[in-house]
Amino acid sequence: MEFAFSPEMCAIAVSDQRVYYRLQHIIDEHFPHRIGRKDKIIIFPKEDELHQRRYFLKLVAKLCKKTDANESDLNQLRNSYTKTIKLSLIQTGAMVAHMHIHVRFENNHAIVFELTNNDRLLVSYFKNYFKDHLIQYRMRSRTLTLFPNSDLTCKRVRKLMSAKKHMAWYIHFHYDNDSFERFEKAYKIRFERKRRFSALSGILEDYFKALGCSIDDSFETVRRNYLKLVKEYHPDRQHGKSSDLIAHYRKRFEKIQIAYEMVRTYYQDQVQIA
Q1: Ramachandran assignment for 3, one of left (phi > 0), alpha (psi -120 to 50 degrees), beta (any other)
Q2: Residue 10 CB: number of other CB atoms within 10 A?
Q3: pLDDT tens track for 145-177
Q4: Which pTM was predicted?
Q5: Most CB atoms within 10 A, among 10, 101, 121, 184?
Q6: Hey, what domains does the chain have and what are their CATH numbers?
Q7: β-bridge partners, 7
Q8: Taking CA 67 as the corner, what is the angle to CA 66 and CA 70, rounded to the nearest 5 degrees?
């Protein structure tokens, strides 16, 4: 590493790409008041970030101890937490590592990235890219599983896979585009149903209850309950019962029919697919 100090700025130049991208990842997570690009970042001083800035510069100094860094420079570095910090990557012309990642789409439920190794920096990069999502990393199988939380997740995944350069790697994503499009379509329908239910929740909730179901049930479950209730409350099956009971069963039967027709519209897209 190389350092340059002025009354307003502390400049840190890094030649090791992996060290630079590790520091860049820390900056992305903890310093919102920053500007920059892939090979240069500037962090502006903010009073509410002094603790993070001290920690960050101590970490940089600790990494420099492995080299022949001057102790006076390291002390000055540690005490520069109130200055503007500039981190830059020294371009050495070194070859960028190429990596191949296979992607599969599981049961309209999750997206699985099959990594070629247990690279902590790469895992951190993915977790930061999808930081508002649930992500599970399994070291033994070297798989990272992403659980979408909206229909916009697929757009973010497509953007990720369309880019070639990612931090310290050129990543080649291998996936079946038809499978991805089916997955994307299924999730779009699922979240559209959620939005539709949110808008009609007060009405539909009563209809679901009338059928003995909930919003989380599949259309097959709803239809199975409906057929069971229709068989039980159908007027033709009420011979020999009192007139009051027959009238009660008839009202219940009509309520079941109306509830099913209303709930059926909620599953309209799913019914058409089936």
Answers
A1: beta
A2: 23
A3: 999 988 789 999 999 999 887 766 789 999 999
A4: 0.48
A5: 10
A6: 2-89 (no CATH), 97-183 (3.30.70), 200-273 (1.10.287)
A7: none
A8: 115
